[in-house]
Specification:
The structure is a homodimer of 441-residue chains. Chain A has 441 residues and is of the alpha+beta class. Chain A folds into 2 domains: 93 residues, Beta Barrel (OB fold (Dihydrolipoamide Acetyltransferase, E2P)); 258 residues, Bira Bifunctional Protein, Domain 2 (BirA Bifunctional Protein, domain 2, 2-Layer Sandwich), CATH 3.30.930.10. In chain A, 28% of the residues lie in helices and 27% in strands. The first copy, chain A, has 12 helices and 18 strands. In chain A, the strands form 4 sheets. Chain A has an 8-stranded mixed beta sheet with strand order 6-10-11-18-17-16-13-12. In chain A, strands 3-2-1-4-5 form a 5-stranded antiparallel beta sheet. In chain A, strands 7-9-8 form a 3-stranded antiparallel beta sheet, with no helix packed on it. The longest helix of chain A is centred in the middle third of the chain and has 23 residues. Chains A and B meet through strand 1, helix 3, helix 4, strand 6 and strand 7 of A and strand 1, helix 3, helix 4, strand 6 and strand 7 of B.
Chain lengths: 441, 441
């Protein structure tokens, strides 16, 4: 019995219509994926989230009511069909269902705006997202979303079994937290507010309550970037640890990535097969490449853009393509990083920060590092980066009255899913993505 | 060894300074909670998220460096202290630490704005939230936040083991989803948008990908309600099931609540003790009271407000106070519910919807029910409730091209935590709450 499903509408899944269940009575529920009408013989393909099955009706073998009911069906209509499983070695699926009763829940209107009968034929990308509430019926989309659910569960399991506490940070904020990337403005009962572009300050504050924290939390950036790795609304795997350094948070990321890949390889086998994706579990530890060295490697790859101060999107992508395993870029210069990154005591121009990079051209996954815990250094950094000290009142006050040294990172959840599922664009890792061009459905 | 913590700063927790560890060398890290300076004898209380421990310094027994270093300490300074655990039956904590080396990470400024030395003395509520980044150092707050983390994990475990898939829905939306409660407006690259007040439409859509879905997701309501059970930013335990009815989702809620309480009773014992809270596991099934009967019960309790059409906040609270176990209110009239609730085929004035109510006066926890799956009924409802059909384009299109019958509910996450932790106000269930008056820190 399916838990929490009405047994008068559905007791089994499409995938239960298989040769092992020969002779069994089942009640399946789902959408009409295909109708092949051959006069006195009719084949229906029923789709539910578990897969598809075939219902075969010979007019002479089914009741008149069942025959007439099925004659009314259109593509994407929703039905419950009761009948007996019949193993059939000639059928691709190994079995078919002979119906003895049919409930029509909805007769779908004809002319579905997108063709859901041949889903492996790639649709125009604009159509996919304009009719996203329909295009998510594609089993490839379901496979990606199932992988996403598996990655989320694995992430939390990893943190839980290593003694981390889950946190929930606020999203409506009064002022610019970090500056830099753009924020969405909103009206908070007549007062100006913004949507959080990260939970940075709040996850640091949470170390007053907990020793080690994590969260899977949404963020927003109002950037008009038309790239394959940016959305305006996205989730981050967030992490912060008291009394930790940049060294420990690299280890956490290595262990986390290995744990997630191991879990996905085990629990996501069907989804990976559906997507024709093969993954291998990354070998730890990952390579650590200082910023200067990374820049030289990019120049050696012939990307001229890397002569600029930062090495840019093209450089990052080229570098990522040249790797088969994830790697870290370390020792970013102070002026290229957020003001909350601690600098190296022996070389104050350089931060104790790092980015985790995916291989195969997928590029940056996470940013993190050791944080500044000294109030005076932090105040100086805020001034040097051109911000107003008065915008950081509570954040600075927290440090004036004692915060431990700490480190942490934020890892792009959809970026990770994109890499695992091998998606050409990050928006495919979201059921209802938000980009500068898409904000509906 | 603590996972992912720098062993030069911290190898043990305060709670490891106990009589079982007599003679053991430990390195603890934390805040100075108390200083008692008795001339040649000094007692320091060190607080970390695991609890407190006592460090005892006799001037004659410690090095001059250690003595002079500790003399510099102020309340809330952050230190790492290495030393030997000494069991001491006279001490309240059963043991103390004799230090042989001390690292000062931060000397806190004197005059901490709130008194963190006597945290059981309740502070003024305005002070608590004005200095929330400091008041969360109170172990009572940590206990609540730890319970919240346990409830989140239990929720996801329950859904996972019952075959549900986790979903992530969008938060920036184009138009009013349900109408009714107010929404926060924001500017989406020059176009008007709103923050999601629920994921209702999107969790319904997700049933195109998955059979049964859940999510722990934030929502926002721009209501200026000054009540003990409303925040403008809150999380909901969201759920939707294809081929289910109102009956099944009542069972899911009963099982979920029982599972969460069982988990909290086992994993949250220390936190419940810290809060002086005793919980008992609710007995299932819960009572089901039709709306009309609930109204009569409230009138019998002497709440005159219940003579109004809906029975209001006072009525709800009075009814909840009269119960010792959670219960459902069912059969709400169509005109008092969202337009997406299916009506009873035998009595079309009444919906197949329900609210889950907590006992002890905590009131409404969830709303849910059977949804309308028929396109024409839905369109009629939208018109009857005074909305513009054109605002529901993609939502209606989804039903035009076939959606299965389905049911679901949304359960207030902080409301549940408030009940479990016995908090007087819902904002105490949030580390950084958002109410009409609070939006910083």
């Amino acid at each position: 019995m399916l838990y929490a499903v009405n047994p008068e509408w559905r007791t089994h899944s499409s995938q239960d219509v298989n040769s092992q269940n020969d002779g069994k009575e089942v009640l399946i529920g789902g959408w009409i994926q295909q109708i092949r009408d051959k006069g006195r013989l009719m084949f229906l393909t029923i789709r539910d989230p578990s897969g598809i099955c075939q219902v075969t009706l010979h007019q002479k073998n089914v009741s008149e009511v069942v025959w007439e009911t099925c004659k009314k069906l259109t593509l994407e209509s929703v039905v419950s069909i009761h009948g007996k499983v019949k193993a059939d070695s000639r059928s691709k699926l190994g079995a078919e269902l002979t119906p003895d009763s049919v409930i029509i829940h909805v007769v779908a209107e004809p002319k579905v705006p997108i063709d859901l009968t041949k889903m492996k034929t790639k649709m125009e990308i604009d159509t996919v997202f304009a009719y996203r509430e329909l295009s998510i019926r594609d089993p490839d989309v379901a496979a990606v979303m199932n992988l996403k659910s598996i990655v989320a569960q694995a992430t939390r399991k990893f943190f839980k079994q290593n003694g981390f506490t889950e946190i929930f940070t606020p999203f409506i904020l009064t002022a610019s937290t970090e500056g830099g990337a753009e924020q969405f403005s909103l009206d908070y009962f007549g007062k100006p507010a913004v949507l959080a572009q990260s939970c940075q300050f709040y996850k640091q504050a949470a170390l007053s309550c907990h020793e080690k924290v994590f969260g899977l939390l949404p963020s927003w950036r109002a950037e008009k970037s038309h790239t394959t790795k940016h959305m305006t609304e996205f989730w981050q795997i967030e992490n912060e640890i008291a009394f930790a350094t940049d060294k420990e948070i690299m280890q956490v990321q290595e262990d986390l990535i290995a744990f997630i890949f191991t879990t996905v390889a085990r629990d996501g086998e069907d989804q990976l097969a559906q997507l024709d994706r093969t993954i291998s579990i990354p070998k730890t530890p990952f390579k650590k490449i200082p910023f200067k060295g990374a820049k030289q490697m990019i120049l050696d790859l012939g990307v001229e853009e890397a002569q600029e101060e930062d090495f840019g999107a093209t450089g990052e992508s080229a570098l990522s393509k040249s790797f088969k395993e994830p790697f870290f870029i370390t020792e970013f210069p102070v002026h290229l990083r957020g003001m909350y990154y601690a600098s190296n005591p022996t070389n104050p121009e350089v931060t104790r920060s790092l980015d985790l990079m995916a291989p195969e051209g997928f590029g940056e996954l996470s940013s993190g590092g050791q944080r500044v815990a000294d109030y005076k250094v932090l105040e100086e950094r805020i001034i040097n980066q051109g911000f107003e000290v008065s915008n950081f009142e509570w954040y600075l006050r927290m440090f004036r009255f004692g915060m431990p040294p700490h480190a942490g990172f934020g890892l792009g959840f959809e970026r990770l899913v994109r890499w695992i599922a091998n998606l050409s664009h990050i928006r495919e890792a979201s059921m209802f993505p938000r980009t500068p061009d898409i904000y509906s459905p």
